[in-house]
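ugh ok fine here u go
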Amino acid sequence: MLLGGASLSRVWPLDVAKGPHDAASPEEDPMNLNNVTCPHCGGLPHNPKQVHIGDAEILHTAVRGVFDLTTSHAIDWRLEAHLTSPDADGNITLTCSGVLVDSNAVHVSHLSQMLMEIGGVAFIGELALDGMIRPVRGALSLVEAAGTSVVICGPDNAREAALVLGVRVLVARHLRDVIAWLRSGDNDALLAPPDDSHPSIAEVGSRPAPDLDDLVIEPVVVRAMQVAAAGGHGLLLIGPPGAGKTSVARRLPGLLPAMTRDEALEVTRCASVAGLNVGGGLIHHRPFRAPHHSASAAGLVGGGAPTARPGEVTLAHHGVLLIDDAHEVSTMSLRFLAEVLETGRSDLSRASGTITYPAKALVVATTEADDPRTYGRVSTGPLGSILDLSVTQTPRPPHGIGWPRAPSSATAQASVARAWGKQAARDWTPGAVARQPFGLLLATASNDAVVYLDQTVPTFLRRRVLAVARTIADLGGADAVEVDHVMEAKGLINTQGGER
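structure:
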């Protein structure tokens, strides 16, 4: 069990208690940082953690107070550890495996036998100084990494922990609930996790997108949205302030087909590690993230110390990332973002190791067209290789005269879903035509389309035009790319961006 408190720390590591002979040595367990000795623990595993030398005496007193308030047994235990400085967030963590045993609250033989019978138990949570069990970040990933058959956590982590199949989740509100379970082994001493019927807190940022038919926009913009969603092509929207560029981008997640369970679990893991899913369960809707143009490189791709946090591109994984006013974002931040989007992953290296976060997001950037230098900085800058499509959005005329109302998101989504089905039938990753190599794209084009492509498209743009044409053909249900698909693609592509 992890111990902490408002005046001491917030702790996120995991302490897994298994059988008496299953404890990993400090060299084998990468989570072990220091050696901790608890006497009379009868071979029970104990994971070493950090204690700040200046706070050691206070920490001992505080922890003793927690158990004095919680148990009816006198506490008689000793802690030996290498005393180190707290991390950059001021956190200090302490694992007291064996404390309950040392206090005679639980008998060693009973506990060892019970742990072997159930296949191990993981305790996940932060123990407050009043004995209450508080939520932690990354509960879903911690349960998956634990590999135990039983998990005991606080109520705010229960719905998330219950997403892992094959794991029984029990809920403890207070340390005394855990002690009662350890003494009796009776699951009725703890609560069952709640159902997943109400929306997650994280879905405030990933709720259903507004419907496309709320807008009156030019048909070419709607077409570009469908092509972007169907092929995973980055989209650059150009227009003056008030043209509705942001409103269009916010409706793009509604054009993407529903996530599979595996995709939803990936999105939930990302939100959980960032602390955005406390109290929530599975996130069902594709995320939409729109960071401010002043966001730093670390805010966009992830960073921080000592443990790097996920950035906006990871929080938009399997969803849409809007870079609004992209001409205002620093060139260095855009360069880092482009590198991550090219690979679909964010590798964050620190002295302690490297953390990899997923980063497969559909990118939409907006900029103004008044100054050619402003437009050129985005279309030919670091994101130029990602932004395959480029359309100019003009302000809506009075009462929308001359412009048809956009189709509903459900209608547009059905068309995108059919295109994804065509791509899956070719054993391509659905929604990732933009990442396909030129050779595979060329093999799906007709002879006439290839000749037309060679005669009318510059060499450096051929792969981009052919990828967009392949997506257009998929939207139309065509097996081969024809000349008319290439002609339409030429009118939609960003002609100034570099190649992927």
